[in-house]
Protein: Uronate isomerase
Amino acid sequence: MALLDEDRLFPVDGKTRDLARALYADIKDLPLISPHGHTDPRWFAEDQPFADPAQLFVTPDHYVFRMLCSQGVALADLGVPRVDGGPTETDGRKIWGLFAENYYLLAGTPSRMWLDHSFQHVFGIDRRLNAETADWYYDHIADCLAQPEFRPRALFKRFNIEAIATTEPATDDLRWHRMIRDSGWNGRVITAYRPDGVIDPDMAGFADNVALMGQQTGFDTATWAGYLDAHRARRAYFKEFGATSSDHGHASARTEDLPQNDAAALFQKALAGQCSPEEADIFRGHMLTEMARMSIEDGLVLQIHPGSRRNHSDEILRTFGRDKGFDIPGRTDYVTALRPLLNAVGMNRDLTVVLFTLDETSYARELAPLAGVYPCLRLGPAWWFHDSAEGMRRFREMTTETAGFYNTVGFNDDTRAFCSIPARHDVARRVDCTYLATLVATGRLAEDEAPGLAHQLSYGLAKRAYKL
Amino acid sequence: MALLDEDRLFPVDGKTRDLARALYADIKDLPLISPHGHTDPRWFAEDQPFADPAQLFVTPDHYVFRMLCSQGVALADLGVPRVDGGPTETDGRKIWGLFAENYYLLAGTPSRMWLDHSFQHVFGIDRRLNAETADWYYDHIADCLAQPEFRPRALFKRFNIEAIATTEPATDDLRWHRMIRDSGWNGRVITAYRPDGVIDPDMAGFADNVALMGQQTGFDTATWAGYLDAHRARRAYFKEFGATSSDHGHASARTEDLPQNDAAALFQKALAGQCSPEEADIFRGHMLTEMARMSIEDGLVLQIHPGSRRNHSDEILRTFGRDKGFDIPGRTDYVTALRPLLNAVGMNRDLTVVLFTLDETSYARELAPLAGVYPCLRLGPAWWFHDSAEGMRRFREMTTETAGFYNTVGFNDDTRAFCSIPARHDVARRVDCTYLATLVATGRLAEDEAPGLAHQLSYGLAKRAYKL
Amino acid sequence: MALLDEDRLFPVDGKTRDLARALYADIKDLPLISPHGHTDPRWFAEDQPFADPAQLFVTPDHYVFRMLCSQGVALADLGVPRVDGGPTETDGRKIWGLFAENYYLLAGTPSRMWLDHSFQHVFGIDRRLNAETADWYYDHIADCLAQPEFRPRALFKRFNIEAIATTEPATDDLRWHRMIRDSGWNGRVITAYRPDGVIDPDMAGFADNVALMGQQTGFDTATWAGYLDAHRARRAYFKEFGATSSDHGHASARTEDLPQNDAAALFQKALAGQCSPEEADIFRGHMLTEMARMSIEDGLVLQIHPGSRRNHSDEILRTFGRDKGFDIPGRTDYVTALRPLLNAVGMNRDLTVVLFTLDETSYARELAPLAGVYPCLRLGPAWWFHDSAEGMRRFREMTTETAGFYNTVGFNDDTRAFCSIPARHDVARRVDCTYLATLVATGRLAEDEAPGLAHQLSYGLAKRAYKL
Structure:
């Protein structure tokens, strides 16, 4: 029994399905461009085997453990580490068993499809995961992980990844990227510049991070001019390790364009830890515009990922820390928020700003109209909770009519779950082919135009937008 | 001629339709679980015949009279009673005629399908309602209502209702429920605890209601501690009449978790009628958290129904009173609003909080992410204006991928229109089978997994979530 | 090769497609009612040939040039005139070439379908537009435009327009409308009353416009009473030229109902240029209620078009002026905003208020519930960015279940692109037939009810709502 339907995500109507299937056949084997994600560069640097099935599939995947948590499973029982180093489950087989008996909870979710895809395509499994098959699964996957062809670099090749970007803080020493480069391995693993820790005055350690950036670059980051120069230097350093983009995970899409004197004064307050919440927000907003100006100079693509209310549960943050599935989206305004940046640099053709959202109400109302007119703007793909069949369909249906296809940038997997990467790209390719086939079947696109667009959506647009 | 298409609401694609039809055949005759509604317990207590066709179908159904009103029909001409007792139409046949000649206005609405369902299945009618058939309809339905098999208890059995909850104010004496119990009739009609009148300082009669609750329970409700104890006692009293849930119809989802001293002080201001609007809102929000704490003690499921801007028209409120179709939804935030309650008790596995919304933009953005991680949270079904084919489809499409099926609670009819209950459940069952069939047909669910899920969505989840 | 698929926008399922096709066949040749638009009355007054293909299709169409702009084409290179009269491209063939080589960017957008419709149906073209065919296209269209049958009045007849409304400022002398009337031509071109310039204190020239309205009417517009009388007189003047509606393009849907003394005092502040932004907003809001009161007197339909954040780019506004594709929608509240007007006049059956939105989240949540109960309210069609296949589908799916069909007003093209008018109506007719066919195929509408509704949606509702 195959875990996956070969025609999954294609239209139910026979003729439209045939169109989708034909489009998909043409592009399904294109290399993967993964310009935005969170895999660990250390994997590719050291190329050590993954620890065990639970460490590969359960403990680090917040999509999985949040669903189990929602039905009463304790995070500690899934091996999620505690901030205080206190006891959590460490027996991989036990964690796996708990996962297996609750696997049915994932019915209808994208995680289910990603996992089944990994089980079938990466590990050659043909039976369904449940309490009965749990041990068999565990043994089988553990056996595989011990084989050389399941090491990170081997999987990288097998997954047909042409380029993958990781994400590192501005002050990261990029040691793993250096190790990859020095190793002579020809896999293209690049970094991306994530300066939240040196831009957000509310982040723990902000002033220390800024000071560290000064040491790293030799600029006097106690001054506004030196601070900007240090950014320039770190961006250049990241570019040495392949970076083509920066990434900014602010709570809102707020931008500002302050006079330089005001920005400098606010920077001093931020360093002194004296910003009010509103001033901190203004500073973050202003720094997006500064980042955009640097992007015009050095060509890094600016990615804005707003809208998540992070760490919604105090108890979980206290016990397990950040990124534990308790980040909840909220309403996000773009029209007013982006105006200062767009008025400053929005008509510049040397700038690319990729916008993401967790608030789908902005697709048709705000993002498509903005991206459909400003030369610098492009729309990132359906993101996070919306990295799914319905989420991707809504993205296309709500953006294409106003922004077209060429103001979008293909697919980003945005994941730290390595084995899910081919699964996620496959879902995106299928959904996009289904969308194109539907346009053809309803006379909204000529049949001879669809294959070229399928190629663009699967490969070309990402490669071009991210300069890969 | 049948009024209803046997395959209504199934997919148009032949193969997918076959899948849906098979799923539906399996579950269509399951008993109805109706854990949240507004039928009148007096019907079941006294078991008297319904008055006349207009009193059954038109005058009490705000879905019907709001549509006629929107096209210029006066509420008084439909027999809607005036607050001042002034004259309104009382001739059932005349009201019915006005309804019949305007019945075409309901084309494409769920009311049309519920009414046709009632006409066909409850009254065996095979011709369409319009001006020509109005009198025939009136006579036929009036004749039926005079028969014993159309009395409330007989219909209850015929509708295959396993359990139905009505909703009573916290200070209700539950006399009709007592009469049902004392009658020895075996229909399961239970109450639900609706304490808005003793929780909302802005409600007319708030202090009197609180005082009455004191008399009913023997606690000194002039004190904060006594007030909470009185709630506990009334909840226990409601549980004696089968209650398994409380229900809270606040304008927003705001919750608060005040220090007890502050809550006590605010309660005194509320009793004295001295709360500012903001303070009244804080008090309501805090009381949701107190109710949640009591739910952990006594097991009542907490239902939050926010988002309606009640009584939008001053003239209608003045003339005809509340609940006259002029309640209009508005934007509703959940992420920030629920945080105090969730931080207080959200990780407790002994608590069930069911969330409803009239703001569909919150489904994918807020509600599914919240319910997909907090153990206490479950999503109520598509509600009120969204209790419809498209509304239910959007609910599934926008919540399943993030929250799965098991964080939802099946269907609630939420109605005071008794004959519409089987019709509404039937719509929900058909739409859910169509959704499941579509997942199967597009390879997102294995075919052997669908029947069990259909059973859960139609019956099991409601029974379990509401402890029935 | 036909540019258009004959079955475009019909359902993909065979049986449902047959239903849609049959419905469409019945109504596709009905005359066009165009009650809201922005064609230039001068065209019909002078009946001169259109200048050249670029002036017809590219330079005035913000849907087209905004997409090219979004991919880096300069507006000046498309011949968009500069505010300062500075140089822009004037060579029609060059502009056309730039348009042709970028035509692929419009794939999947409604503009592509409207343009192909015009090319095929108006100009008899059977090859696709691209860089290779650009010159051929230019020559062919230019040749056509030189023929008498491509002059405005001939096209008007050929397009089967029964009535078309243009939009003129309150102080317009309506000279072109007078010229049309005096010419004896029998095409029905009517005006609509657009008083933004004499209602919005923030508009440049507000006080001068009000003074001019005084001169035009003989009323003393320096007084509140005279100002209102002048509105009445101008409305009557517009009615002489066929106006059946007024149109109001405010940023929000805010309404107010001030005491007359307060309104009079605010008007004096507005004339003196001393309104704060908030006061200006209150004044605009109050004037909507005054306009509604006048509508009850004189029968003009009141159209409210809120939600666009105009002129988002300062640079584009400075260089090219208003209406250059940089108007971006934002969140729009209706429930609170409309309440003052609705409390003042909302139950009046002699009033028709047509509501439009750019914020689709309000369809199911706010607009359908409001229009489904207030006698004065009707919903305008999917508008501007949503005048598209997906936009229209969402409109029907999200409004019909609550507001029905009869609280909607058919289609408005709202365009200044003359040749796109039949194309736009054709899209609306196809999408509505598809929607109705889907309701029939899924048992939500009886098959014999669909043709009458198709007629209403295509023709009857617009004619009745706008009194044409």
User: Anything to note?
Assistant: Chain A has 20 helices and eleven strands. The mean pLDDT of chain A is 97.
